[in-house]
Amino acid sequence: MEYKDYYKTLGVPKNATEKEIKQAYRKMARKYHPDVNPGDNKAEERFKELNEANEVLTDPEKRGKYDQFGADWQRYQQGGGQSGGFNWADYATQGQRAGAPGGRAHVEYAGMNDIFGAGGGRFSEFFEALFGGMGGARPGGGRQAAQSGARAPRFEDYEHTLDVTLEEAFAGTARVLQLDGRRLEVKIPAGVKTGSRVRVAGEIGKGVQGQAAGDLFLKVNVVPHQTFERKGDDLYCDVPVDIYTAALGGEICVPTLRGKMLNLRIPPETQSGRTFRLQGQGMPVLRKPSDHGDLYARVKIVLPTPLTEQEKTTLRDLAALRK
Predict the structure, then answer these.
(1) Fold category of 6-148 in CATH
(2) Bridge-based pairing state of the strands 295-302 and 234-242
(3) Whose CA is closest to 123, among 5, 131, 147, 65?
(4) Mean pLDDT of 219-227
(5) Nearest 5°: phi and psi at 228?
(6) Residues facing 180 on adjacent strands
(7) Fewer CB atoms inside 10 A, N or C side of the chain?
(8) Could you check whether 6-148 and 158-222 share the same CATH topology?
(9) Which residues of 97-129 are buried (b: 16+ CB within 10 A; e: fewer)?
(10) Region 116-137: what's the mean pLDDT?
(11) C-alpha dihedral over 196, 200, 204, 206, to 10 degrees?
(12) Which pLDDT tens digit goes with each residue over 269-295?
């Protein structure tokens, strides 16, 4: 039975991070994908090898077992042993690992059918021996996949950053995407924030036989707005107020994302920077669109320009009165 060097298969060093492994896999999988190489048996076999390597190296538990047992496999062969005579039973028990006091090797899977269901033969004998057949277990003889938490091999999930305006985040919107030649309409719910992720299940690799489809994640980025500043579900905006209204009191107009202005009465002697709360006029709460945050209007006193000579004289008189 041939030892499989999964690191070499993906062209990454043994200390590669999970991110580096995934990047290498995506790059090579696109090159050897059966849809790109129809009828090419060599490309199909290479694609299977890439999937097998990715299945192991992106799973921390599988990678740990592979790094431990794979090294011993190599040492056994280098010492003159035959690959078929490697004693997997040393690692299949829940007791002490042979030659390593205190170590434990836990059997997670009983056979390939338990891991991937019928058709698991798309993986190599080495993979089956290391993760599916340890301790002489036979396919179907162990726990069910639902109990072991195993899943079928699947395409890697894909994440894409999506820009939306604050108005779109307020009302909800939709985007039409082109994916593998398919037209896909995705709804963006009201209340999304920067960093929110919209999951589109089962669209990556959809329709490819022998491998479960992955999920598409749209990572939302709400672009800055010219008028409003967002803090959680609350909105803040500056409202220009002339000195006469600020001094004597009166009504001002406050913009909203609903598209209409609200009248707000402010008291006399309102200072610049004073903030007024308009309850329920902020962003909708994600997954609770009937609930809203608040809108905070900050007064920004604006001086009239240019001043006429009469206005300047009046202001001088007012300044003299204040003294």
Answers:
(1) Helix Hairpins (1.10.287)
(2) parallel
(3) 131
(4) 94
(5) -105, 145
(6) none
(7) C
(8) no
(9) beeeeeeebebbbbbbbbbbeeebeebebbbbb
(10) 51
(11) 180
(12) 999 999 999 999 999 999 898 999 999
Q: What is the pLDDT of residues 68-123, one digit of tens each?
A: 776 565 555 555 555 455 554 454 433 333 333 333 222 232 232 332 333 334 56
Given this model, what pLDDT does residue 131 score? 65
Question: What is the strand order of the sheet 275-278 is part of?
Answer: 228-231, 234-242, 295-302, 275-278
In the predicted structure, residue 169 carries a pLDDT above the cut 80 = yes
Q: What is the DSSP letter of 46?
A: H
Residue 129 has pLDDT above 80, yes or no: no
> Letter for the amino acid at 116?
F
Q: CA-CA distance, 129 to 59, in Å (whole number)?
A: 17
**Structural domain spans, the chain:** 6-148, 158-222, 228-322
The count of other CB atoms within 10 Å of the CB of residue 81 is 13
Instruction: Please state whether beta strands 158-164 and 214-222 pair in parallel, antiparallel, or not at all (unpaired).
Output: parallel
Residue holding tokens 């280098």?
Answer: 78
> Does the pLDDT of residue 242 top 90, yes or no?
yes
Q: What's the CATH architecture for 228-322? A: Sandwich (2.60)
Distances (CA, A) of 66 to 7, 87, 128, 143: 11, 15, 12, 21
CATH number for the domain formed by residue range(s) 158-222: 2.60.260.20
Distance separating alpha carbons of residues 258 and 248, to the nearest angstrom: 29
